[in-house]
Structure of NAD(P)H dehydrogenase (quinone):
Amino acid sequence: MAITKLYIVYYSLYGHVDTMAREVHRGAATVEGVEATLWRVPEMLSDLILEKLKAPSKPNDIPEIRPEQLVEADGLLFGFPSRFGMMPSQLKAFFDATSGLWASQALAGKPAGIFWSTGFYGGGQELSALTAITQLAHHGMLFVPLGYTFGSGMFEIGEVKGGSAYGAGTFAGDGSRQPTELELQQAFYQGKYLAEITKRLKS
């Protein structure tokens, strides 16, 4: 059986997206024949700025990815914290560096998904996904939303919950809030869901 490669590429400043990414990875890894790999995009902020922001150290078990490595994957999932309703400059700079891949349309036809973190309800739970889709569209990638396939968890209104039909999400609040069990379940589901679709498309 040919191995299907799924790359989970993300940026995380305070760790919320890192937590979500690891759960996405766990879900993807449950699909037989799929090799899921976690990657970090390079940090642009200096150590001094990161220290002033009180950002934790980057995890040393997740390697940084180069733009040209994206072509190795059969499917891609991108995760990021929202900045004013959009992806942060770190991930945008990474996409800006993919112009060579864009010119050759090397990523065209690859299924791709998005997951995210925002501060509060007005922080871009849906807008962050919508503005990120433009990056996928210009590369010709196939955006794979969750729709309402997650089931009853999509209709939960008894607790604060991030995410939408576009993908899994979480709220960071003032930074102290961590992804809830339900948000992590949706992240796990998204990883599994995209892995299954990627595998089907490859075969």
User: Anything to note?
Assistant: The longest strand covers residues 111-118. Helices lie at 16-28, 47-52, 89-96, 99-104, 127-139, 181-202. The mean pLDDT is 95.
